[in-house]
Queue: 2 jobs
Job 1
Amino acid sequence: MSSNHEPSKSQASAANPAASIGFELFLDCVHCGLCTSACPTYTELGDENDGPRGRIYLMRQIAEGRMELDESMRRHLDRCLDCRACETACPSGVHYGRLIEPFRLAVEESDKGLAKRFDWFRELVLFRLFPYANRIRLAMAPVRWAQRWGLYGLAERLGLFRLIPGRLGQMITLVGPPVDPGKKLPSFLPAVGRRRARVAFFVGCVAEAMFRHTHWATLRVLQENGCDILIPQGQGCCGAIHYHAGSSEGARRLADANVAAFELDGIDAIIVNHAGCGAMLKEYGIHWHDERQSARARFAAKVRDINEFLDQLGLIPPTGRIEAVATYHDACHLAHAQKVRDAPRRILGQIPGLELRELPETELCCGSAGTYNLNQPEMAQRLIRRKLDNVLRTGATIVLASNAGCLLQIGREVRQQRRPLTVMHPMDLLDLSYRGMGLRP
Amino acid sequence: MLTAMKAPLLAKLRRCLGRENVLTEPSELVVYECDGYTIEKNQPDAVVFPRSAEQVAEVVRLCNEYDVPVIPRAAGTSLAGGCLPVGGGVVVMLTRMNRILEIDLRNRMAVVEAGVPNLQLSRALAGTGYHFAPDPSSQVASTIGGNAATNAGGPHTLKYGVTVNHVLGAEAVLGDGSIIQCGPLPEPAGLDLIGVLVGSEGTLAILTKLWVRLTPNPQDYRTLRVIFNSVDDATNAIGDIIAAGIIPAAMELMDRGIVEAVEAAFHFGFPLDAEAIVVIELDGLSVSLDWQQRLVVELCNKWHAREVLQASTRAERELLWKCRKMAVGAVGRLSPSYCIQDGVVPRTQLPRILARVTEISGKHQVRIVNVAHAGDGNVHPILLFDERDKEQVARVLAAGEDILEECIRCGGSVTAEHGIGVEKLALMDRLFGPTDLTAMRRVRDAFNPAGRLNPGKLLPSANGDQTFRVGASRRALP
């Protein structure tokens, strides 16, 4: 019945970036438009082209061979944060991520073939620097040095970083003030008290280089909750940076290294504490179709976000009082990609003394979105201003987020606006409560 | 639009609104070729994003100068093709006019620009004890301007009335580019222009600002879900509840077909073998609800209800309503495309119309599932199809027309809340006599004398010609 409507084989050539997308995924969209108001870029711009329904429509035009990808279409599609808030809003079950992600991969790959221009940022920073914690630490050394000598704060206040053009300037300003990262992570940590679970911990790249203190907090919380923790050697970046920047192959290599590093027998879960990595790890099983797919799927099935895991395990309530008002920001890759919304709230609700206030528009992206804030600084800036305005409206003094990108993005805006706000991962706060330390000065 | 005419108009639009507020690239216009109604499609010649009533007025004046149609649009959730640029023209997007200008609790009123999404107003009212009552299922996305333009309803209209009952004042741009303001007045005086503008689907004026009434939140709710073994039992129980003197806030019916989609989407735990599920919400003072609930349960049991369950927590109530409001979108899980009808019949005719829908489904070999604002007699048969199959589309259109004609025969109408748009244009002269339509056209001509505002919608042309029909190549129709 529909033989004459399917995109013909000739259209599905390599030149068509939508060729690799299963056409039935487009048909899930019934064009009702209920997703539009969930989309951060549509909310800001009000243009159908910058909303999920419109973007799906554009990709479908290309898939059907009705139109060819041109500059303006690409601008609208590139502006997508891939935050997947539309998936949460969609009643029809459209897998938006499975449309836009392969589409972008194909666009990037065909781009390479056409013009072999060298994108230093993509090739050096995204692919060679970010996935490796030790290299990030090395690259941050000048910034850390400047911070130690008080020059960084001065430069930030004088707005000198704005003189550094493009993405480099963006990156430098994201680096927060130094926090004692703690010792190198060991390969094993024992449960405190009766053992309730045995887990393996995923370390990651940016998270390890910039948030090792949060790793330590997470590990201590796991110990307090009766978990034996293995920290396997040989693991690395989850691959999300490669995948979202258009290198499916690079991502696959990193994924396979991780799958090889984790021994699944005898562990109850693979714990990850940053939403972006968690979403990627959980999708290992669907991204690539080859002989290792089932091994990746087995790995993915064991992955749990720390909030999700503690909530399922049953949190042993902490007793240290923290007298403060906090608000929780839903990281897109936790709320939308992993559908974990209530668990962090339930966990934080058990900290004695803490008042948790609901953040208006909590489900709207903060503009970080992986490397989006580096590539689309203007939209990212609009979104973070909106986010911080909403945070300030709650009257909270602590803002919590379960993702490295959000923490960096919100942290920078807080510093630049000089707001009296502490930006933390929920595990940082929970750890303080377990240790009875209250808020650090 | 003639190309020669186009260039100077576009240049003037850009000068007036700024380059970034005018879209003209074909690849940027394509997404504006349809709204929530996908059976007919046509691209506009330009899309503009004004930020004030003055800018809207300027756009309308320019389009008059170049004899080009103007089509207002915001969220584009219309289910009857209300935003379809039938004969091309300039689409005026109201989405950048999205400020809540004032919340005035002492006067129980909010002032909003037309592009404010419905739910955004209710969210902004959280904690005040008030809400905005019209709650179309699209309320997360659809705008208050669009709700007013189509006189949108929603589940709770049974008790609280439709949008027109909640609009106190309106600012609008007329067909000649003049700006009028009607209301808000403490008591109505003069001609009721708000009544005329609300529901006029952009054919009289472009609404730019609205003064809306705020409704106090009820003290308490009782939300029941009742499972029936037959649709007839369900509709009979609904009739009896009204006859017993109880006006629930909402009485919503979902049939077996739609429950399958809803269950796949939200995993509420509805039994998949239930022929009909009715959601009944009672609201008001806590003390008044016990006896009402007792009576409702009694009447449901009289009609052989299999199970009556009460939502025990707020979260359960919210999920129940989410299931109902997202039900239509969830049918995407059953088929690639759908067309939702919007017939209304006297409540007592519900069993007849739903039985006829089943027959029509068989006759045209089109799968149809049903949701209904049953308390209002408003049925929403959802016709499932694949838009790539033109023969199927033709059957869907024929079945839809049969259903609506049956609604007219039942003493009802072809729309309760979605509007006429382009979809139901052909049915207007079956619903109204020639003198009725002439009177309506005269009203339109008074507001929109040149006929450039949203042409080809709501009112069929007097001589029956189809000047503004979509070109055959872009029609899904064979």
Job 2
Amino acid sequence: MALVNTLLRSRAVAALTSPHGVDRYLELVNPMWAAHDVRGRLIDRTLEVDVPGAPPVATLTIQPTGNWAGHQAGQHVQLGVEIAGTRTTRVFSVSSAASGRGDQFTITLRANPDGIVSSYLAEEAPLGTILHLSQAQGEFTLPEQMPEHVLMISGGSGITPLMSMLRTLQRRTHRGRVTFLHYAQSPEHQIFRDELAQVATSGYGIDLHLVYPETGGRFFTPMELERLVPGFRDVDTFAVGPAGLIEKVQAAYEGSDKLRVEYFKAPAVSNGSTEGDITFTRTGTSAANSGTTLLEQAEAAGLTPAFGCRMGICFSCTATKKEGTVRNVLTGETSSLPDEDIRICVSTPEGDCAVEL
Amino acid sequence: MTVSIERPPVKAATDSELSSTYTLTAEQLDAFGDEMDAIRQRVIADLGDEDAAYIRKVVKYQRGFEVAGRVMFYLPPLWPAAVASLSVSKILDNMEIGHNVMHGQYDWMGDPALNSRMFDWDTMAPAENWKYGHNYMHHTYTNIVGKDRDIGYGILRMDEDQKWRPYYLGNPVYAFLLMVFFEWGVALHDLEADEILAGRRHLWKGENAPIFRRLRKKMGKQILKDYVLFPLLTGPFFLSTLAGNAVANLIRNIWTFNIIFCGHFPAGVATFSIEETENESRGQWYYRQLLGSANITGGKLMHVMSGNLSHQIEHHLFPDIPARRYPEISVEVQEICERYGLQYNKGSLPVQLWSVARKIFRLALPTKAEAATEPQTRSASSAPVRAA
């Protein structure tokens, strides 16, 4: 197997399959055969939270191709899935314990009512669906040398990377102390409820605090944290959750280097106006949105992006929009999702917008 | 020479400012442009599963033909079948897949394998070079004499408005050589050979440096694959495989040359001057694309094997819409043309080829000052051709 892989990745095979590459041939025989691309097959789905009226949370088990290099607890993966002919890629945290080469892993996600990908994955994608993956990414991982005491703080579905850490520590029979503080709407909305209940009763050295503000639990305050973990600013802390919670946690730590946080970008909502700032991320330039096309605004800001026809037909000016909403002046279509490719010569930004230029 | 096409699209000039090329009033041109925009929006909104499945199916066939062709070279009696199979593979790869994918027709699928920024094709010209000359120069400045480098490709005289020189006596010979070595011609086209000969460009320095570097790399890969590695792999059949690969490339060259020459060079296709296309409106741009292109009629196989460039008119109106949609769009475009009294140039492959061949020979000689004896072959810049 290793020999076959080495052969498939060889320069000779690359030369023979030029310009398309060997994966473009292998995938036609079996989508799970790949020398360079990483793919996965959806093999199981279980609902973690299924409360009427609330978006469901599901755990997906994925069998990756043999070239999946494994992941460290806390890392995330880019996952692309095809819906109505279009592949859309989103980032999800891996929720299972650290994995090795080619090992199955899980992601746990909440079906975002405004997002097509998460609801499709949580509720519709049939088992067997092929997913397009990246290798695991991210620096938000457990340190090599485990500290004596680790504090984990999460809100809502932010629990997923911390769950991967907790599971990894349990498997490693970590001897130190773990304080696990999690905020959820109510006990019904609690992700990993059964497993956490088991941890609470039998988890050695794990101090579990599940807080439900909706049913009387107290919101996060520095005082409350001090009560649970005296001297918390000197404890290695991992925090993941909605922006509101993370901001409070960051304020509480007063710049302590013991705190490490992680949050993902959410799709921007168009405000329908041109008021806002345009940021050109590669050059670090920014300017007030003038309402004209991004190409013109970039040029006005002194940039010289590549362009061709300047009328939306030649694709020379295609750039990645990192954040914000843009409108295609030819079709009126808007693009609001992060990391979408746009033709800047026919795209006008609405509100704030960041483009990789 | 700087001609810029302004955007957002400006409104057509007033009637008095319009050149006599246009058989429509400014108001009609705007309305015509709006109708084209409406088609575009409707089709784009409708793209989905079927379009994705279609291009994947074509890719699957292409790779199948390719592998079959390469394998059959091990069985000498199957040599003709191997060559045929490999030719079909290369034609599909270059036309229905490569040309169209690199136009960004399938970018909406979000598949890196079918993305205009990532794709490269099984021919000498590197995608990066070709996209600039084709998607930008040719598709933006289609049939503007002096701007569109695809009028004669810098070596042929394909329009009366190109001034005759004794060099052009060789027009038919150059055309024949270009046909035989078409993939090399397309690749070298991006270096702007005419500019090099005129002493305004260096072959591999200055502006040409990145183009030349990419070209050398891609040519190396293509030559290594078709003329060294695959022949070596077939061991004792080295020479027969080598010859087979060369013939497959030749067949592809002849076919693509012929299809492409039928796209803009048949009689009756209009050309435009730089002056009359300055500050062109969107309606005028569509008008130029329509009158500057010609279709080839034929069956489904003809359309697939030509990468739907048999619908050159629709392709030029909507270069980034998946080509499989052109047949359905053409019905509407023809109806619109009829309403506006605009010419819609179409003919069977033999008819269009004959028309192109005649032009190649005719333009080898100086154009008579009075070309009025043959109204259907006049370029629109001298007198517009109105459909009945």
